[in-house]
Automatic annotation (TrEMBL), chains A, B:
Protein name as catalogued: Carboxyl-terminal processing protease
Family in the record: Belongs to the peptidase S41A family.
Taxonomic source organism: Fontibacillus solani
The enzyme's E.C. designation: 3.4.21.102
Superkingdom of the source species: Bacteria
InterPro entries referenced in this protein's UniProt entry, alphabetically: ClpP/crotonase-like_dom_sf (IPR029045), CtpA/B_N (IPR055210), PDZ (IPR001478), PDZ_6 (IPR041489), PDZ_sf (IPR036034), Peptidase_S41A (IPR004447), Peptidoglycan-bd-like (IPR002477), PGBD-like_sf (IPR036365)
Signal peptide segment: none
Gene Ontology BP terms: proteolysis; signal transduction
Keyword line: Hydrolase, Protease, Serine protease
A GO MF term: serine-type endopeptidase activity
PANTHER family, per the entry: CARBOXY-TERMINAL PROCESSING PROTEASE CTPB (PTHR32060:SF29), TAIL-SPECIFIC PROTEASE (PTHR32060)
Pfam families according to UniProt: CtpB_N-like, PDZ_6, Peptidase_S41, PG_binding_1
Gene3D superfamilies: 2-enoyl-CoA Hydratase, Chain A, domain 1 (3.90.226.10), 2.30.42.10, 3.30.750.44, PGBD-like superfamily/PGBD (1.10.101.10)
PROSITE patterns the UniProt entry points to: PDZ
Length: 483, 483
C-alpha cells in the first residue's frame, strides 16, 4: 500500500484524469432492477432511419479516406466519430475511451494495477523512488527509497515524462521487469529482476486525533474501498473512538454499491441511502439493512467532492444526522455504466444511465450539497504558481505578482496589498523575505526568490495547523463528544 | 449592393464565421486535372476493415440510444459522429456542416443570397435598417434607413438576436415577406409586402486617391468577385490611374479559379501564379495566359489575409513585381473541396484535398508571407472592449484599465502609463476626458465614461488618417509613380 500518498496521488491522478468523476457498475451493463432501461424506448425505431444514418457516416468516412490530402489512419477517424457522438450528448460524464485509457479506467475502478509496486516521482529529470510499497515485489527485491531508476528491460528513461516511465515499468502480472538502478554511494548501476504482481491502490487513510476523534480520509470509492474502510473504522472503534470525521474532499467518486455499503454503516436500518431514477422516471430506493452509530459523525467536503462522495454526504446528512463541514460539493447527480465487450477491441463506452437523488428526493446535479457549516481554506491553498522566467520590480503589475503577494502573506510577510500591484509594501516584504532566506536583498521578484516563496508556501500548505476545514471538523466533533 | 459595408460585413461575418477560411471549388468534387486524387490509394482496402469499423460506430450508436438517461435525437448523434471524424484529422480546414450552415457557406461562396435586401443592425434590442440595398426589393417597396423592423409574416423579432431576425427575414427567391415597420414620426406601424430576390454581396470596393493612386479593397473571393474586380479596375484605369493598392486585409479567402483570374491581370504571360500539389506529391502549375501592368502595384496584407488572399499576394510578389505592405499573412496553404450531394440531406463535407505553393515553390502554411515593408496599425486598433459593469478608480488595476488607457491615449489624453495600473496620470487624463465630453468630472472610470471612451475610439479607428498601413501603401505607390 502507498505510504507517501501525496506523490502517489499525483501520479495516479495524472494518469487517470480523463476518467475521473464516475459513478459506475463494474463489468456489467445491466442496471440492478432496471432491466427495461437496456431495451429502451428506441428499440422499435432503430430500423431504416438508423441504416440511412449509418450510411451517411460511412459515406463521410469514405470521402475523407479517398480525398484527404494526407494518408489517414482509419481507426483514428472511427475513434473520432465515436468521440464526437458522445460529445453530441452534451453530457461530460458520458464518454468513449480507447483501449489504453479503458485499461487505466478499470484499474482505477478496481483499485489496483499490476506492476512492481514502487512509488516514484520525477526529480531533476530522474525517476526517483519515493518508497517501495510494503510487501510489493519491489520491496522484496530490495528497491530502496531515493534509488534512481535508469531503465527497464533495456529501455532507458532518459527524456521520458513520469507517466511515460511509469507505463514502461508497469506490465501484466507475472512478467519480469529488469530494472537498472543508480544508488547513491555506489558508482556502478545495480540491476534488479522483479516479477510484476497485483498492487493495491490505497484509498483509505485513518488516524486517531486527540480526545478520541477519529479521522478517515477516503480518496476514491474503488472496488476494495468499502472493505478497507470497514477495517480502519473497526480499528478506530476498538481504540475507543468517540467521534468521527470522514474526509471526502477532492474525492471524485467511484462505484455505487461500494458507497452504499459504506453508508450502510452509519444509516439506521430502514432509512434511505439513495434513490435512483431511470430514464422512464421510475425511482428505486436503497434502504439501510442495518447500521447506525452512537458517536457523532461529520463529513468533510469541498467542491472536488463528487458523485459517490455526494451520495455519502447526502445519505449521512439526511439519514444519519451527520454534520457536513467545508464547502459545497461538486454537483454530479448521475450514474454511469461501462460497455466494454460490445465494442470488441478493448475500448469502452461510459454512458449515463440514471439519475440519483438524496434520500429526501433532492437532485443535486449542477447544484451540489451545501455544508451545514461552511469553512474555507486560507487563500494561499489555491494560489497559482509564479512564472519563473520573468522578473518583477517596484511599480509593475500582473498575476504573478498577485501570487507572490499571497505567498508572502502566507509565510508571514505583509505585502501591503494582494491585487497584483508591486507597491512599496510588497518591495519591503520581498526584501525581508530575501534577507530571512539568505538570498540577495534586491526587492526584486526574480527566479530564486519565486522558487523560495513557493517552497515556503508548500510548507504552509502541508502544515496541518493550516487545514482550517479539518481543524474545524475535529473541533466540532470534539464539542459534540463533550456535550 | 451594400453601402454601409462595415455593418454589413459584421452581419455577414457573424453568420458565416464557421465557414471562413476556405479555398474551394464550388459544386464540384473533381479537382481540375487531378482525377486520380478522387479514387485515391485507399480504394483497395476499404473492404472488411471498414465494415468492422462501421459496425463499431453502429454498436456505439445503439448502446447510447438504448441506455442513455434522456431521450436522444439520433440525427444529433450522427452529426456529432461526422463532426468528430473531421476533428480527428487535426485539420481545422476540413469540416462538416449541417444543412443550414452548408446553405450559408454556399451563399458566401456564391457571393449572393436571397432576401429583401435591407442592411440591418441591432440597436437597443431593435432590428434597425441601416440602409436598403440599391435596387433591392426592400428599396423598391419603400423601406427607409432608421426604420425599425418589428416582425415578418407575423413573427415578432422581440428578444431575438440579429442573426435570428435576419434568418427569418431571408427566404427563397419569389416568396413574400410581410414586414411590419415602426417609423419615427408615425404612431401606427406600417406594413410592407416585399418579394424576396437574389441579392448580391459586395466584395470589391474601389476609389481613386490623389495623384492617380487607385485603391481596390477585396473583402472575399466569391464567385462574382473576379468580374466585379475587373470592372472596377477598368474604371480606375479609364480615369487615368497611375498606380494601384490592392487591399486584402482581413480577407479570409474564397474560390481558387477566381483568385487565379484576378492574378492573371497582373502576372505577365507565361509566368507562374500558383502551384497545386496533390496527395501523391504531383505538382501542377498555373501559368498566366497574359496580363501584366505598366503601373506600380502594392498588395496590402495583415494576419487576417488568408488562403486566396495569400495566393494573390504570393503571385503578385513573385511574378508581377508587386510590393507587399502591412503584416505577415495568415498562413493557410491548403485547398479544400466540398461534397454535398453525396450525403443526401443538404449537409456538406469540406475536405482538404491539396496543398498550394507560391510560383517559386514555397509552402507558406502556418508561416504566412512576410511583407516587403512591415507596417503596423496603432495599438488602439486592437484594444479589447471595457467591461462596463465595473467601475475603477485611482490605485486599482486590471485589463479594463489597460484598455481605457489605450483609448485615452488614442483620443489624445496622456494616461501616463498603459499597463493597467490606475495611477495619478490616468486619473488626470480621465478627468480631462470627462470635462471635454460633458461628463461629471470624477476621475473614476464608470459606465458612462467607458461608453464615451469607446465612442471616441471608434471615431479614431474610422478616421482614414489613422490607417497607417493604407497611408503608407499609398505613399509608396506615389513614390514609385514619381520615380
Amino acid at each position: 500500500m502507498f505510504k507517501g500518498r501525496t506523490v502517489a496521488f499525483f501520479v495516479v491522478i495524472a494518469m487517470l484524469v480523463s476518467s475521473l468523476l464516475t459513478l459506475t457498475f463494474t463489468g456489467q451493463w445491466s442496471f440492478a432492477g432496471a432491466g427495461p432501461v437496456t431495451s429502451g424506448i428506441f428499440a422499435d425505431n432503430s430500423g431504416s432511419s438508423t441504416k440511412s444514418d449509418i450510411k451517411k457516416i460511412e459515406t463521410a468516412l469514405e470521402l475523407v479516406k479517398k480525398n484527404y490530402v494526407e494518408d489517414v489512419d482509419q481507426s483514428k477517424l472511427v475513434n473520432g466519430a465515436i468521440d464526437g457522438m458522445m460529445h453530441a450528448l452534451g453530457d461530460p460524464f458520458s464518454s468513449y475511451m480507447g483501449p489504453e485509457t479503458a485499461q487505466q479506467f478499470s484499474e482505477q475502478i478496481e483499485g489496483s494495477f499490476t506492476g512492481i509496486g514502487a512509488e516514484v516521482s520525477m526529480e531533476n529529470g530522474n525517476v526517483v523512488v519515493v518508497s517501495p510499497i510494503k510487501g510489493s515485489p519491489a520491496e522484496k527485491a530490495g528497491i530502496k527509497p531515493k534509488d534512481i531508476l535508469l531503465s527497464v528491460n533495456g529501455e532507458s528513461f532518459e527524456g521520458l515524462s513520469l507517466n511515460e516511465a511509469v507505463s514502461k515499468i508497469r506490465g501484466p502480472k507475472g512478467t519480469e521487469a529488469k530494472v537498472k538502478v543508480k544508488r547513491s554511494g555506489s558508482a556502478a548501476s545495480l540491476e534488479f529482476k522483479i516479477v510484476r504482481a497485483d498492487i493495491a491502490l490505497e484509498t483509505v487513510y485513518a488516524r486517531m486525533e486527540q480526545d478520541g476523534v477519529g479521522v478517515i480520509e477516503v480518496t476514491e470509492f474503488s472496488m476494495n474501498t468499502a472493505e478497507r474502510f470497514q477495517k480502519e473504522l473497526a480499528a478506530l472503534e476498538q481504540k475507543g473512538m468517540k467521534g468521527l470525521v470522514i474526509d471526502v474532499r477532492n474525492n471524485p467518486g467511484g462505484v455505487l454499491p461500494v458507497v452504499i455499503e459504506m453508508a450502510q454503516q452509519f444509516v439506521p436500518k430502514g432509512k434511505g441511502i439513495v434513490l435512483v431514477e431511470d430514464k422512464n422516471k421510475r425511482r428505486e430506493g436503497t434502504l439501510s439493512k442495518g447500521g447506525g452509530k452512537s458517536y457523532p459523525v461529520a463529513v468533510l467536503t469541498n467542491k472536488g467532492s463528487a458523485s459517490a462522495s455526494e451520495i455519502l454526504a447526502g445519505a449521512l446528512q439526511e439519514s444519519a444526522g451527520a454534520k457536513l463541514i467545508g464547502e459545497a460539493t461538486y454537483g454530479k447527480g448521475t450514474v454511469q455504466t461501462s460497455f466494454t465487450h460490445e465494442l470488441g477491441d478493448g475500448s469502452l463506452l461510459k454512458v449515463t444511465i440514471a439519475k440519483w437523488l438524496t434520500p429526501n428526493g433532492e437532485w443535486i446535479h449542477k447544484k451540489g450539497i451545501k455544508p451545514d457549516l461552511a469553512v474555507s481554506q486560507p487563500d494561499y491553498f489555491s494560489v497559482a504558481p509564479i512564472n519563473k522566467e520573468k522578473t518583477y520590480k517596484y511599480d509593475t503589475l500582473g498575476d504573478d505578482i498577485k501570487s507572490a503577494q499571497i505567498m508572502l502573506s502566507a509565510s508571514g510577510y505583509d505585502p501591503g496589498r494582494k491585487d497584483g500591484y508591486f507597491g512599496k509594501g510588497t518591495e519591503n516584504a520581498v526584501k525581508k523575505f530575501q534577507d530571512d532566506n539568505k538570498l540577495e536583498v534586491t526587492g526584486v521578484l526574480d527566479t530564486k526568490t519565486a522558487e523560495a516563496l513557493e517552497s515556503s508556501l508548500i510548507k504552509q500548505i502541508q502544515d496541518k495547523k493550516n487545514d482550517n476545514q479539518m481543524n474545524r471538523a475535529i473541533e466540532e466533533i470534539r464539542k459534540d463528544i463533550a456535550s
